[in-house]
Specification:
The protein is α+β, with helices and mostly antiparallel strands. Among the domains are: about 100 residues, no CATH class; about 120 residues, Beta Polymerase, domain 2 (2-Layer Sandwich), CATH 3.30.460. Helix content is about 60%, strand content about 5%. It has 21 helices and 6 strands. The strands form 2 sheets. The protein has a 4-stranded mixed beta sheet with strand order 1-2-4-3. A two-stranded antiparallel ribbon has the order 5-6. The radius of gyration is 24 Å and the shape is globular. The chain starts with 7 loop residues before the first helix and ends with a helix.
């Protein structure tokens, strides 16, 4: 027996009010309430992190060689070649995306490298060249097709970034293609790319594609085993970071590439985009720092004021400081000494702790690129506790693109509410289980210690 009845119209209004609320929570959330909730994240800022590289056997020596390569330091002593664990160095270079750069560096500065490692690095360089040339071919075909149908697209990362920063497409490993279009151009871009062979794993109806555009920030398309990530934003929506693609589009410029012209971000916008990408993945690869350093090196006039103004407007100043500090401490990059952000953030405990976390992860033998620690780092590097809380709320309640695509069709408005609730329940249960497992492991360790 039903005790009450809810009119379907009211239920649908409630369903659509949730994403509307989440999209505006940054503007309307009470700061006092957020301050109370933010106390739950106090442990994030109080964590003390060891910033020294790990002293595991065979790691520190190889890490030093890899950093020397990243710094393009001259005068690598040939006498030290016998001290290097070459297999471990190559493994470390591959995990950090540095193998092509390492091969080029050692060829110039360490002529007495053993034949086996030398041959392996040459093979890696050749494979990167073949793969990136294949990526370039597919990318230029996709960009020409989009340009023909009137869709403006900017390639992001990938082989064209290697050409822009290093002057050689073979000097940077690339796994897939990334292209950014305006949100309103997503349907036309998907249709055009489908005509040239880039297809989605699921059948995309107009309603499903519209829902995906509102909820996520990218769509994976594949052709001949190569993936093209079609972006309409730089960061996932739940981070609540407005990159301001409209402004970035106005500053973009056309450059020659592969016999045609393509759009590219202005250096300041590219620096911010690469910083956000590295931060999202906990700065787990040295190549991401090299990209920033090389971008500064090849840019004749870099507008620092524009960069800092954009970061302040996006509320990512602490993330930018972490990138600056890593460039200075790890790669010895010279930055303007009168930059107010560096002076202020170096005196801020939260900023110093966020930098320590990033540097510690970067210097590990196996850096963590995803998972709880990565998420915790990003929360600790937000400009305020309120930003961190908003991110958690949005992440807990905003359905991901995979969840929407998993349904195979656009959901009715009423069912869309259930997807928000289901995601919240699933995320809460996963977090609770992680806490229970951690406490159980701690109890087992204490029992083992007391028994011994």
């Amino acid at each position: 027996m039903l005790l009450f009845r809810v009119h379907p119209t009211h239920f649908e209004r409630l369903a659509w009010s949730i994403p509307h609320f989440l999209s505006h929570v940054q503007c309307y959330t009470n700061s006092a309430t957020l301050a109370i909730i933010a106390s739950a994240f106090a442990h994030i800022d109080s964590t003390t992190v060891n910033t020294n590289p790990p002293n595991r056997k065979g790691i520190s020596q190889e890490w030093e060689v890899l950093v020397a390569c990243a710094q393009q330091r001259n005068g690598f002593p040939k006498s030290r070649c016998s001290e290097v664990d070459w297999e471990n160095l190559i493994r470390l270079a591959l995990s950090h995306g540095m193998a092509p750069l390492l091969g080029s560096y050692l060829e110039q500065h360490a002529g007495s490298m053993p034949e086996g490692p030398s041959r392996r690095l040459q093979q890696t360089h050749a494979q990167a060249l073949r793969h990136n040339l294949r990526l370039c071919t597919h990318l230029l075909q996709a960009l020409r097709a989009l340009d023909t149908c009137g869709v403006s697209a900017i390639p992001f990362k990938g082989p064209l970034l290697a050409e822009r920063l290093y002057g050689n497409v073979a000097l940077r490993q690339s796994s897939d293609l990334d292209v950014i279009v305006r949100p309103e151009d997503v349907p036309a871009a998907v249709h055009t790319l489908r005509e040239v062979g880039f297809k989605s794993r699921q059948r995309l109806s107009p309603k499903l594609l519209s829902a995906l555009t509102m909820a996520d920030f990218e769509l994976s398309l594949v052709r001949d085993g190569l993936y093209l990530e079609l972006h309409w934003d730089v960061m996932p929506r739940f981070y609540g970071i407005n990159f301001g693609l409209g402004e970035a589009w106005q500053r973009s410029r056309r450059v020659g590439a592969g016999g045609s012209t393509v759009l590219e971000f202005a250096p300041e916008d590219l620096f911010l985009a690469l910083t956000l990408h590295g931060s999202k993945h906990y700065w787990a690869r040295l190549i991401w720092l090299c990209d920033l350093a090389q971008l500064l090196y090849v840019t004749r006039t870099f507008d620092w004021h524009l960069l800092l103004t954009r970061a302040r407007g996006m509320r990512v100043e602490r993330l930018l400081f972490v990138a600056f500090a890593l460039l200075q401490e790890v790669l010895q990059v010279s930055l303007p000494s009168d930059m107010g952000l560096l002076v202020h953030m170096k005196q801020d405990p939260r900023s110093r702790n966020a930098f320590a976390m990033a540097k510690s992860n970067l210097c590990r033998s196996e850096p963590e690129e995803q998972g709880f620690r990565t998420y915790r780092f990003f929360l600790s590097a937000r400009d305020s506790h309120a930003d961190a809380v908003r991110q958690v709320i949005r992440h807990a309640m905003t359905p991901s693109g995979d969840e929407l695509l998993g349904t195979g069709r656009a959901l009715p408005k009423a069912v869309y509410l259930l997807l928000h609730v289901w995601r919240l329940v699933r995320k809460t249960a996963r977090f609770a289980w992680r806490l229970v497992r951690r406490e159980r492991d701690r109890a087992d360790q204490e029992t083992a210690v007391s028994a011994s």
